[in-house]
Every structure is written in structure tokens, then in C-alpha cells.
DNA sequence: TTTTATTTGTCCGTATGTATC
DNA sequence: GGATACATACGGACAAATAAA
């Protein structure tokens, strides 16, 4: 209504510093985590404990923790506490890129779960990537890759249906792309190229990767070829950028 | 104008399709861009012009443009106009990564502008990257890299102050990191490693890179070494993910 | 260098359709 | 059906940045 006096100069920031209280608390906590005061995986003191120590309201602490959670530094679990997220998993990109080996060597339990599959006619771009004729039959596999139960990446892979007609069944049996290709006589293969982009996570990927809205994903488009250089597999993987970094050694 | 009978009580959404007006306008514009009606880098008609042509309110057009901007297809500049983003620049990562050569071969005008510089004592992580003793004097250079006047990346580079005491002056003179190192006797160097992460752009980077809030940046942490393997330069570059993709050929 | 026009960004509104409880 | 919250669409005014005169 006309008479309603709106927003009487709400004090949004501390009058002196120009930085809000929750922001300063968030920065302090970030420094403490970066400085090793709180180790990865460790449980932070409860919200009430932090608030009491700093002499602020619990909700101010909550706002700070929400900021850190949105940035992927901590993870809040209702009824349990707030935990420092593990450091980023180093994911080497090179000629011999294999998910299971990478995660295995990092001392974590690897897992690749098939969450969808379909057949489609190869559109021009996909046909070019796999050196197939346009419209050729291809099989798509949607795989959610996790390490220690934490989702790492959501990957869409395509293979020629002529090459691997029973791809879905074979993958289900072994849960390994390497084993799938080996079953069809491709004992070894190598990564030909990888193109890396980044973007805010799509809604579906954000849900599957358990990401806060607006967080970034690393998008890796790759082509795998036989040792003779024949393309057999192309993948678009979306990595949770908060939990993974890609490493290139020259 | 008086006689123009404009859509009486324009339906909020298409009565049949269930798709809102701004969404349809966004889709139309997207098709026009994809179809080449508006070339990359070209300036779109002004909001008022588009609104007038379509017979809708300027704010509805703004909503459509905001959608396209959020997806990285266009970029709005206050006081100037809305521009179609160029396709992603392919940025090869390898042993011989040089910004000017990469952009040059893509047929664009490269530019590296020094926007800040400072001296600092190397903190542990930085000292390790450059194989220096902790607390050693290092020079930091903040460089904004552009191609055809469009910002591509914001990069922070560090060198040992003992190695390159006049780094700022030399860089200013040549606007090239290769020339800077050459001046100090390092005729050639190679990329030892690159670590790639991604995150939503920080406020300052977003402004410098002219990114909409929430858009992603690719973060590349790299170490350059002499041919003998001595670290001489380490850089943290933030690429505008909408305009660049990193390419790794194995 | 200064001025002016253009263009986008932001705020204030109003009315209405949609979804949910 | 009613109450409510929210998104859509429109209209207007002004601020802020830019570009051209």
C-alpha cells in the first residue's frame, strides 16, 4: 500500500569495514580450513558452539557456513554436523586415461553406475567424432562415477552399435569401460584428444552430482581410439569442479 | 500509431503451447544466431528496436536476452549494446604453451595488458612451486589477456625477484612474457605441468572478463621451467569459460 | 576536453495467469 | 472455492556507461 514505508535503511554491512559480519566469519573459517586448522573430512564445531565463541547469533554463523557450502568447502548434514570437504581429487589427463585406475591409485573406492542408456542415430557432430556415417546406429551410456560414495562425474559415452551391440549388458556385468571394450576385442586403447570447457551445472547434473545450484562443472569431451588410431569411444564427462581438478603433465 | 491495434490483452503465455513469450523470443534469437543471421561479434539491434519489431515490451526482450547471456550466447554492455559471443577459442595446453602464438594462429589480435603488479614474500605453496626458499622475494604480475578486444583470461604470474628484478619494466616494454624471460637469458622454456579446475567467477574477475555473475571460469595453475628443468614462472590463469576451451592432444 | 545522444541497468509500479495448499 | 505465493507481461522514470559529435 501507499502508506507502507519500505526498507528503513537496513544495515547490510558493518559500518566500519564495509564487509558484513557473516562474510567476515566465512572468510575466517576459510582461512582456518586452508591453514589446516580443520583437516579434510573433519567435523567442525556445531553452529551454536561457533556462535557462542564469536559472540554472534547462530543464524549469522549459519549464513557463513551456507556460503562455504555453496563454494564446496564444507558440507552440512542435518542432525550430524558440518564437515570439511576432502581436497580436490587429481585427475590426470593423458594418453592412458582410465577412471578406475586414477581413482584407485588415489586410494579411494571407484564406482561407475549405469543410470541410463539408449540407442540413437548419429547426428553429424557425433558421427564425425566416431568416424561413422551420418545416421549410423550408436549406443549411449549415461554413467555416474563416484569415489568413496561421493559423486565425481557424470559421463555420457557413445559407441557404435555395430561395434558393440550388447554394450549395455556387458557394461552392467563388469561396470568398466575397459572391460567392455576388451570384450569386443579392443585389448588396449588410448586417448586421442580431450577438450576441456566449464559452465554452471545444469539442473539434472547438479542433482546427480549433489552440487549446489550455480556451482561449476568441468566438461571434458574426449575421443578414445585403438592403437591403430580408429575411434571407438567418445565421451562427454561433467566433473564436479569442487571435487576434481584435471592434471596435465607435459 | 493510434490506429495500430496491438494484440488485445496479449496472453501471458502462448495459450496453446504453454511456452512463455520471453522464452519464445529467446529461442527465436538463438535460432537466428545459430543460423548465421547474426554473426559472431556482431551487435544485435537495441532492446527497444527488437521490442518494437515484435510488438512487445522492452522488459520482455530483456528477459529473453538475459537468458541468452546466462547461457553465454550473447554479452550485454551497458551504453553500447548486446553482442553475439564468438565461438570458443581453442587453447592448446602442452609443453609449448604461449598465449600470443595460440591467439595469433587463430587469426585474432592478441593483447596482454598489465593491470597490476607487486612484490611479496613467497608463502610456502608459492615457494614450492618456484623451488625457492620460503619468504623469498617474488614479483607478481596481473595480466589481462584479450583477443580482438574481447577479454579471454585474467592471469596472475609470479617470478623470482632475484631472477627478474625489473620484470615490470621489461614486461611493460614488450607486453610479452616470452620476451621478458628472454631478456633475463631464458631463451626458451617449456610447460612442466598444468592443473585445471573450474569455479564460478569471483566478482573482480567477472568484471575484468566482462562475465555475467555466476558464469564459470576455467582455472589453470601452471609451472614453466627452463629446458634444464628449473622452475622460472608460475601462473594462475582464469579463463572466461564461455569463450575458451582447453585442448589436450595426447 | 566537453557535450550530447544512445543504450543498457535498475528501480518503481500495475495487472494477470498459474500453482499449491 | 478461497487464500496465498510466485512468475509473467507491461508501463514508466531515471541512473550509469558508452560512443560520437
Write a structural description:
The structure is a homodimer of 250-residue chains. Chain A is of the alpha+beta class. Chain A is 28% helix and 34% strand. In chain A, the strands form 3 sheets. In chain A, strands 4-5-6-9-8-7 form a 6-stranded antiparallel β-sheet, sandwiched between helices. In chain A, a hairpin with a 4-residue loop joins strand 8 and strand 9 (231-240). In chain A, helix 1 packs across helix 3 (58-70) and helix 2 crosses helix 3. The longest helix of chain A has 14 residues, at 21-34. The first copy, chain A, is elongated and about 65 Å long. Chain A starts with 20 loop residues before the first helix and ends with a strand. Residues 1-18 of chain A have low confidence and may be disordered. The interface between A and B is medium-sized, with 31 and 31 residues. Strand 10 of chain A pairs antiparallel with strand 7 (189-200) of chain B. Chain B binds a DNA duplex (21 and 21 nucleotides) through residues 9-13, 20-22, 46-48, 56-60, 62-63, 76-82.
Structural class of chain A: alpha+beta
Task: Kindly report the average pLDDT value of chain A.
Answer: 81
Percent strand of chain A: 25-35%
Secondary-structure arrangement, i.e. CATH architecture of the largest domain in chain A = 3-Layer(aba) Sandwich
Q: Any idea what the radius of gyration of chain A is?
A: 23 Å
Main sheet properties of chain A:
6 strands, antiparallel
The greatest inter-chain interface is formed by: A-B, 31 and 31 residues
Oligomer designation: homodimer
Helix content of chain A: 25-40%
Q: Mind telling me the CATH superfamily name of the largest domain in chain A? A: Chorismate lyase-like
User: Regions of chain A with pLDDT < 50 over 5+ consecutive residues?
Assistant: 1-18
Measure the end-to-end span of chain A. 66 Å
Amino acid at each position: 500500500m501507499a502508506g507502507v514505508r519500505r526498507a528503513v535503511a537496513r544495515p547490510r554491512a558493518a559500518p566500519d569495514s564495509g564487509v558484513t559480519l557473516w562474510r567476515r566469519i566465512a572468510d575466517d573459517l576459510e582461512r582456518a580450513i586452508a591453514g589446516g586448522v580443520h583437516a579434510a573430512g573433519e567435523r567442525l564445531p556445531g553452529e551454536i558452539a561457533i556462535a557462542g565463541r564469536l559472540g554472534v547469533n547462530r543464524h549469522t554463523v549459519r549464513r557463513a557456513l551456507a556460503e562455504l557450502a555453496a563454494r564446496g568447502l564444507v558440507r552440512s548434514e542435518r542432525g550430524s554436523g558440518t564437515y570439511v570437504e576432502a581436497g580436490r581429487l587429481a585427475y590426470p589427463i593423458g594418453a592412458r586415461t582410465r577412471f578406475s585406475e586414477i581413482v584407485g591409485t588415489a586410494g579411494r573406492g571407484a564406482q561407475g553406475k549405469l543410470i541410463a542408456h539408449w540407442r540413437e542415430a548419429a547426428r553429424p557432430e557425433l558421427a564425425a567424432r566416431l568416424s561413422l556415417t551420418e545416421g549410423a546406429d550408436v549406443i549411449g551410456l549415461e554413467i555416474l562415477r563416484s569415489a568413496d560414495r561421493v559423486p565425481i562425474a557424470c559421463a555420457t559415452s557413445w559407441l557404435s552399435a555395430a561395434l558393440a551391440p550388447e554394450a549395455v549388458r556387458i557394461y552392467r556385468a563388469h561396470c568398466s569401460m575397459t572391460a567392455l571394450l576388451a570384450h569386443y576385442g579392443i585389448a588396449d586403447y588410448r586417448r586421442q584428444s580431450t577438450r576441456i570447457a566449464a559452465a554452471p551445472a545444469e539442473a539434472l547434473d547438479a542433482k546427480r552430482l549433489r552440487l549446489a545450484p550455480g556451482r561449476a562443472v568441468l566438461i571434458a569431451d574426449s575421443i578414445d581410439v585403438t592403437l591403430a588410431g580408429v575411434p571407438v569411444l567418445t565421451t562427454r564427462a561433467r566433473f564436479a569442479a569442487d571435487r576434481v581438478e584435471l592434471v596435465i603433465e607435459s
